[in-house]
Amino acid sequence: MSQSFDRSIKIAPSILAADFAAFGAECAAAEAQGADWIHVDVMDGHFVPNISFGPATCAAIRPHIKGVMDVHLMISPVDPYIDAFVQAGADILTAHLEAGPHIHRTLQAIRAGGAKAGLALNPGTPAEAAAGLLDDVDLICVMTVNPGFGGQKFIHSQIDKIRKLRTMIGDRPVHIEIDGGIDPVTAPLVVAAGADVLVAGSAVFRGGSVADPAPYGRNIAAIRKMANDALSDT
Ligand code: DX5
Ligand code: ZN
């Protein structure tokens, strides 16, 4: 990962809301407009009811991203594909706790492959389910929608879970990433609860395009401002 650990606010646009025919240019445009990380959503039509793309697409996108490529695997099983996603250039590889019976093994395999290990929790999974895994992860991704689609409504009951995880993590260098329904209204809520990485798809890519990327910059700046204001209030 091209970044050392810190808890500053990071905005990670999800390319699920970008132009699928122009991923490379979309990633470059989002970075040029202020994105900190690029969030890449992989869906298999089995773990979630939607199919996006796989490791070949991630490898094709990689040269167009200067910073962190944050790959969110919504697939089951995970283990047979870890090597392919590491080879594709993922800096962070996030697997779902619900994706199989041996999540600890999966996280170890991701680290052994050379990527940072992320653990994603579905809305129905309690914070306590991550208790035995805190020394084996670099990031916990709290899903604030049910995974599978962009543009869904933020689930407010997840805020208490974020607060619990922040306490459980303590001084460990573990990011708390929030994924789903993040916009300038919800961003401050999750930051006040302890989040530092904000994934946003529709709220970043709406209104702009590769030909007219300035709205991406305004959208990112609006989320960042509300998030940082919440941080200075805590
Ligand atoms: C949902 C994906 C999210 C999604 C976020 O399954 O993991 O990354 O694209 O999209 P928005 O920000 O539109 O909710
Ligand atoms: Zn995601």
Overview of the molecule:
The chain has 234 residues and is α/β, with parallel strands linked by helices. The chain has a single domain, classed as Aldolase class I (TIM Barrel). Helices cover 32% and strands 18% of the residues. An eight-stranded parallel sheet has the order 1-8-7-6-5-4-3-2. Strand 3 (68-74), helix 3 and strand 4 (92-96) form a beta-alpha-beta unit. The radius of gyration is 16 Å and the shape is globular. The two termini are 28 Å apart.
Major sheet summary line: 8 strands, parallel
**Helix-strand sequence:** EHEHEHEHEEHEHEHH
User: Are any ligands bound, and if so which?
Assistant: D-xylitol-5-phosphate, zinc ion
User: What is the name of the CATH topology?
Assistant: TIM Barrel
CATH-assigned homologous superfamily:
Aldolase class I
* Whole-number tally of structural domains: 1
Beta-strand content: 15-25%
CATH class category label: Alpha Beta
Mean pLDDT: 97
Overall body shape: globular
In angstroms, what separates the terminal alpha carbons? 28 Å
Lateral strand order in the biggest sheet: 1-8-7-6-5-4-3-2
The Rg value, from CA coordinates, equals 16 Å
CATH architecture: Alpha-Beta Barrel
> Helix/strand/pairing class, anyone?
alpha/beta
Contiguous low-pLDDT stretches (5 residues minimum) are none
Helix content: 25-40%
Tally of contiguous helical segments? 8
E-strand count: 8
Binding site for a divalent metal cation: 39, 41, 72, 179
Enzyme class: isomerase
Protein name: Ribulose-phosphate 3-epimerase
Pathway: Carbohydrate degradation
